[in-house]
Each structure stands twice: as C-alpha cells, then as structure tokens.
Task: structure prediction
Amino acid sequence: MDFHKLKAFVAVVEECNISRAAIRMNMQQPPLTRIIQQLEQELGATLLKRLPRGVEVTEAGKALYQEALTILAHAQAIPKRVQNIAQGLEGQINIGFTNSVGLHSFLPALLRQFREAFAAVSIHLEEDGSNSLIDSIINEKNDIVFLRKPAPIGLGLNSLHILDEPLIVAMPNNHPLAGVNTPIQLLGLEPYDFVLYRRLAGQDLFDNILASCYQAGFSPNIVQEAPRLTSSLNLIAAGIGLSIVPEAIRDFWNKQIVYKTLQADTPCIAPIYAVYRKNLNNVRIQHLLKLLHNIEMIDASIK
Result:
C-alpha cells in the first residue's frame, strides 16, 4: 500500500478536517480528497463520514488508522536499523568455546563489557569441541571462538593468545595427598589413578595434560574418562581417581574435592586463544579483540 496515501489518511483522521489535513500535508484539498476516495475504493469500505464541519472516522477507518500507524512507524525505523546493522550496532554475534574455556570467568566478564558497547546486538553462544569450532569459523557459522590451542596454519585464521591458566590437581578429600600443605610435584602423581576429561570432547586440554605428564617423566594411569570436564568432578568426588584440571574449576565445585597447586620443571598451564578469520571487517569482532588486548581490565572487572 502507498505510504503517501497512508500518511494522508492519518493526517485527516488526526485533524478531523480535510482542509487542516491538507495544510499539514502541504498540499491542496482536492488532491487529498481524491486520495481518501481512492483508499475507500481500494479497500471497498467507507473510512470517513463527511460532516458539515469536518469528518468522523468509521469503525473501518479506525482499523486502518491503527494499522497505518504501525506500518509508518516500522517504515520510519527501517533506514536507522539498516544503518545500525551496517555499523555493527545491531544484529547478532556468534561466539564458540570449548567446555573448559566456558568455565573460565574471563568469558562472562568479556561478554558483559561487550554488551555495554553493543546493547542491541544479540549474543549467540555455542559450546563444542575444538575441531568443530575451527570448522565453524572457516564456514562462517561462528565469528570468533575460544580454544585451548591456536588455529592450524594455512586455514586463513588468526589466533590471539589471551591468557595462560594454571593447571592444578583435583583429588578426593580422603586422598593420601589431600593433607599435603605444599605444592604437589607433578611427577609425584605417577603412582595414582587418573580421571580425565574425554579426549574426543576436550582434545586440546587432554593433550595438554598428557604432554605435561610426559615432560615430567611418566604416563598417567587413566582408569576412567568423563564426557565433560564438570562430570569428571563427580568421579573424583566418588574417590575413583584424581585429575589435573584448569584452575577455574576450583570455583565450580569444592564438595568432597581438594585442590592443590602443581609444580614441575615446565610450568603446567592451559592457554586460551581467540580464533577468528583474517581480514574480518566486523566492528563487533574488532571491539571484542580490543577488549581482549586489555585482558588486565577484564581481570579487574572479574575481581
């Protein structure tokens, strides 16, 4: 339907007078009268009752008036919304992360700061394995993902190192090492049974833990694997074994579990990287990266 006709009709209804509506529309009265007549012909309904000193809107006219207000308001908002989306101020940002990264407090703090700058942007989060997340970046399903390793070379992806999270020991509260008040030597864990986060679900973290054990001089005796990092805590609390976990897990669960600092010749850490496409002209991602370059500020907001 013609927006000009709707604007003219709204003016007539609100002015209750065709002459005043014509002045408001900056047009002559006869053309405005024809517009109203054309609307009535197109809709097959009487929209206005002609009175000696003006007009009165009919029930059909009231319905058209309400619809016209909605349509005109929406039409008026379209240019601004298109501009906002083009400028990255509206729309959606797709963020992926592995299970272990999702437990770190930097992520909600980062999203909170991002939200302050882009309040109208919808944040879609996806948790998955690292290989699937890499594919999601390549296929443009996600805009940025957070992993425990950098992106493979040659895929057209950038990797930004965000932080190194210490690895610690999680053990049942009745474990022989639970009463030790000093940091645990990594090699000192060799005699004990391990529970680990399944490699298929957390390849990067699994490989990182095994690499730390190998560098310390032993291969861990893995008696059971858990489908998720958090579910491994149930097995640890049940006394099935101990595990090496990212430090952030300490704040997630401490019932029947004791956490100990690890010591080794090579620091036991689990890094976190942001992975995104090269040459990405996206103001939202650029803002996220700017925040990540100031990770100290994010840490401060956590505290």
